[in-house]
Amino acid sequence: MARSEPSLLEVSGLHAGYGPKRIVHDLELSVAPGEVVGLFGHNGAGKTTVIRTVLGLLPAQGGRVAFAGRDATGRSARANVRAGMALIPSERFVFPDLSIADHLRLGAANAPRGMDTAARLDLVRELFPLLAERPGQLAGRLSGGQQRMVSLGMALMAGPRLLLLDEPSLGLAPGVVQQIFDAVRALADREGPGVLLLEQNVAQALRICDRVCVLRSGRLLLAETAEEMRARESYWDLF
Amino acid sequence: MQVLAAGGDLAQLTASGLFHGASYGALGAGFALILGVTTRFHFAYSLTYTFTAYAAYSLTAEAGLPFWPAALLGVLAGTVLGVLLELLVYRRVAARSGGDGMMPVFVASLGVGVAGIALLQLVWGSQSQPYYGPSIEPLRAFGASFVNLDVYQAATSVVLVLGLAAALRYTGLGRAVRATRGNPGLAAAQGIDVRTVYLVCFAAGSFIAGVCALWYGLQYTVDPAMGTRPGIYAIVVAFLAGTSASPLRVLLVGLGVGLAEAWSGLWLSLQWTQTTVFVLLVGYLVIRAAGPLLPRRLVGKGA
Amino acid sequence: MSLWLFYLVQMAVFAGFALSLNLLLGYAGQLSAGHAGFAALGGYTVAYLATAQEWAFLPALAAGAAVAGLAGLLIGLPALRLSGEYLILLTIAFTLALLGVIATFPELGGTLGITDLSGLAIFGWHLDDQADWLVVALAVAALTFALCRRLGESPFGRVLRALREDPEATRAHGKNVYAAKLTVFAITSALAGLVGGVSTASLSLASPGLYALDLSMTVIAMVILGGAGNLWGAVLGGALLTLIQPLLRQVLGLDSAQSALAQSAVYGTLIVAVMLLRPQGLLPERGARGGKAAPTTQPPPAGRAPAETDPADQALRRAAWEEAQVVLRTSGVGKRFRGITAAEGLDLELREGTITALIGPNGAGKTTVFNLLTGAIAPDAGSVELAGRDLVGRRPDEIAGLGLVRTFQDVRLPQRLTCLENVMLGVQEQAGEHVTRLFTPGSGVARREAEVRAKAREWLEFVGMAEFADVPAGALSYGQSKLVSLARALATEARVLLLDEPASGIDTAWVERMLELIEDVRRQGRTVCIVEHNLHVVSRLADDVYFMELGRITAHGTVAELTASPRLAEAYFGTV
Question: Does residue C275 have a pLDDT over 50?
């Protein structure tokens, strides 16, 4: 698990928040290609603020975000998405009046030039067979678990180099959670995108993580390997 | 108070309701597209309408261009005006006010509308101008008499709505528009350029308004007040249909409003028929307002 | 000379229109495009009664105001239940429909209008020339100013300025937002009718053209230009814009038709320019001008040494909890949204003088519980009893008045009110919030207001924010605004406080201060329930904890008991 490769995402000294409200203080964080990093912490600890700032949906209040060796601080979300970032929010992660096929097309529109869209589609459908079954179905009519798969499928169609996943297990049955997490791990192993996984379902997330960071009230409380964290008896004191 | 005799007039009123309703529907679809996607309460929609008619009129009558090129250029001018309003006024006002800025944008839009109509009159005068295009021929069918322009106008409205619906459904830009309307936050996270999407909506809505205005000018005259009623009807139809409704639904509601208005002529004198839309609106608001009092109330955020 | 007199009358008339609209738009934040319609109702009522019915001028004028006010009430009933754009829409439609209909009555002169209005008098004083009308118009403008000032700068006006920015938070602190909006809209409409009546009488004419929708737009332009929320601004805006037409005619030599058009062009352009460059208008609202707070990075000093979490202390508190009386009890509370269960079978007990915490994984429905208890969402099933009184089916403002008050996760202080005004908003039973009492001598409005102010100051002092009393809430840091929102909730004197994530989103130093305050509140014997995700906060504060999963309560006990349960750990952190 040692990080031999150079980082894909490098966050240093990051301060972030909304307007006068500062939520994240002085954060250090990195993700290497092919690595799944868990970002844990109680609700309101600032996890979502971190990834929204990384993607450029929120301006950083201080510090630096570098992506693929380039400074990405203050870059627009559109530029970051084109450069290979993909973010899936924890709620409202589909477009209700768009079909499954529409979602995949929207995702493919962000793919780098020259990517084989057909092959990409096959890969996504292999990971989530549901997406091949009813391409015309409106996403708003799908169950929560199916919507999750649609949103992941949309993100993957762009061939992202960094996936920012916000609580993909929220509101899902355990079996579905397992299926989605397995797909994420398989993808990271096969294609090598880095993954920053925000989760409250620590037990499931730890199965696929390489390293973990824990936030409390906007500050980094802990950074260790997933193995070290799995060895803990209880997580209560981290939350 | 003269009341139209019932019976034989039904066919006539129905025809007139459908013709008017088609244009209400198209205008409503254009307005709903703008309001539903951008949240801008574009009250100056009627200005782009009126401006298009004047532009086309003056290109024909004053600059001497043939009808069709002048009409096309006029519609383009109206489209550009709509886009410029978003670019130069609404976007800035909304950014300044923070939040969605519904009220400030509406107020600014009101100002644009008032100033724009006054400027049109200072340039072209306040009197109505005759606007000529395709020759007018009387037609008769199903016991109703009308003119060929009525049919063209209604057909154009339907084609515009169908075209808008198809563009939303089948093109990449249309997907981006629907995505932004349904979930603006996710659209931004997906790298959709929301600002461009807004401009596209203003362009499409203004285009539709402009085309409708040309038919109105041909059927009646081009005059400074021509946009007032169509503008109000567009807004009412859009609200009645729901501002994120599909264009087809808005068209149906427009036809319904047109029919209700025309049929009310069976019982009411002509001036009173224009209260129909007010009555419909009040009825709708009463139902909406009573909604929360009904048991199936759907409010609140999840956890 | 008489022409300038005429314009002076017009200035007074438009100042009256602008003042009345400013009360609605500036203070309550509701936009009406119906001023033309209400003015038409007033004007036509005066003209009809004074000519065909031979009423005296003053009774006719009163009737005109009453008719317009009644119309406003009827329009407001449905429209004000909904968001702001519906009021705009309905007032526009009303004005157009009214003008169309008026012209159909031969009694009202059809499209020509009523033109034979003359010979009006007030108690034998014959109103013959413009000089007489100037006196009347000025008197009515002054009356309108006095009324608007009394209403706007009163506790009632404070409620209006609060609901302008945040109706939900205003309601949650015991104010009947809908009633306040309806009242102010009806008053505004009546004033428009009053001024419309004077305008009509001074012109000896009531015609549909006089009240075209443009009149509404003109008045809106005046309010926006002068400054929404500032009554002198309305006077200034009304006077300035009225003067544009004579200036255009005299200085530029335009004819009357052209000058009217140029005037509209100027109005419209001014509105756009003001919205782009100076949205607050020429004379900004009072509070909005207030200086910036020096946003301190450190919380205000604590009253006394911070209390450590001591196990022995916790055991003592738990023993006290066992003894304490139940203040709030829910049984079987449930709610479904479109077939999805948001809450089911909730049995909760909050005990007097203790702190209860709701914890559970994301999406468990904790905030929904607050919404159900405070009436923001009506439960489908079950009962909520506060000190033996059933709360189900009551409005949020009633529930707040009965002693159950919540705070919001995202604070929600009206930004343009000062800290002190925000806290004053929390105080219940204010005489000055009732319009009738504002105009009843001896109803103790001023005395009560002084009490409210003193009380609010005490609570600001309690949270350590007294020195920020006159600072607008918008200038505060996030931590500061959380303290002020706590003071506002405390000022309600509610027995039970529901605090939604009181310590989230603020820096560590502020968290400590907040926790001390909440402990002080418990010491005062009040009952507190918190939703909180930071378990350190929960274990420091809570005497009793409910664990929620998927809208149900699945465990109940102390923090130590709950965190010792392997099953709850699985619910919280998942299973492998």
Answer: yes
Q: What value does the mean pLDDT of chain A take? A: 91
Say whether C424 sits in a helix, a strand or coil: helix
CB C413 within 8 A of CB C488: yes
Q: How many of the other CB atoms lie within 10 Å of CB of B7? A: 8
Q: Does the distance separating the beta carbons of B282 and C89 come in below 8 Å?
A: no
Could you tell me if residue B19 is inside a domain?
A: no
What is the C-alpha separation between B142 and B146, in angstroms, rounded?
A: 11
Cβ neighbours of residue B8 closer than 8 Å, sequence gap 6 or more: B143
Q: Which of A22, A207, A235 sits opposite C573 (nearest CB)?
A: A235
Say yes or no: C387 contacts chain B, CB-CB below 8 A: no
Pairing of strands C496-500, C404-406: parallel
pLDDT tens-digit map of B289-303: 876 554 433 333 332
What whole-number distance in Å separates Cα of residue A193 and Cα of residue A156?
10
Rounded CA gap, C428 and C433, in Å? 10
Integer Cα distance of C19 and C146 in angstroms: 10
- Find residues 330-369 of chain C whose CB sits inside 8 Å of chain B: 337-338, 342, 362-368
What count of CB pairs under 8 Å joins B to C? 164
CB spacing of C342 vs B116 below 8 angstroms: no
For residues C364-386, average pLDDT: 93
Please give the Cα distance from A176 to A197 (Å, whole number).
16
H-helix or E-strand spanning residue C383: strand C381-386
For the stretch C109-124, pLDDT in tens is 888 899 888 888 888 8
Q: Which helix (H) or strand (E) holds B24?
A: helix B9-38
Please, where are the H alpha helices in C23-129?
35-51, 57-79, 84-102
A169 vs C contacts (CB less than 8 Å): 574
The tokens of A74 are what? 């203050």
Mention every residue, 6+ apart, whose C-beta is less than 8 A from residue B289: C77, C78, C79, C81, C82
Report residues of chain B scoring pLDDT below 50.
Answer: 1-7, 294-303
Question: What token pair was written down for C11?
Answer: 């200035």
Residue of C nearest to A44 (CA): C504
* pLDDT tens-place string over residues A156-200: 999 999 999 999 988 788 888 898 999 999 999 988 899 999 998
Would you say residue B99 lies in a domain?
A: yes
Three-state secondary structure readout of C234-273: HHHHHHHHHHHHHHHHHHCCCCHHHHHHHHHHHHHHHHHH
Residue ranges of chain A whose pLDDT lies below 70:
1-5
* CA angle B41–B45–B51, rounded 5-degree value: 155
Q: How many domains does chain B have?
A: 1
Residue of C258, C271, C279 with shortest CB distance to B96 = C279
Domain span including residue B138: 26-243
Distances (CA, A) of C400 to A58, B51, C375, C490: 36, 53, 9, 12
Domain-located, residue B190: yes
Nearest residue to A117 via CA among A73, A62, A158, A59: A158
pLDDT value for B295 = 42
Chain B residues with CB under 8 Å of A94 CB are 183, 186
CB pair distance less than 8 Å for B115 and C368: no
- Quick check: B300 and C337 CB within 8 A? yes
- In a mutational test of the A interface, the residue from B186, B243, B249, B301 whose CB has the highest number of chain A CBs within 10 Å is B186
pTM score: 0.91
Cα C497 to Cα C374: distance, rounded to the nearest angstrom: 10
Give the residue from B190, B244, B246, B301 with the most A CB atoms within 10 Å of its CB, the best one to mutate: B190
In a domain, B215, yes or no: yes
HSE-CB at B183 with a 13 A cutoff on CA atoms is 21
**How are beta strands A21-31 and A9-18 bridged, if at all?**
antiparallel
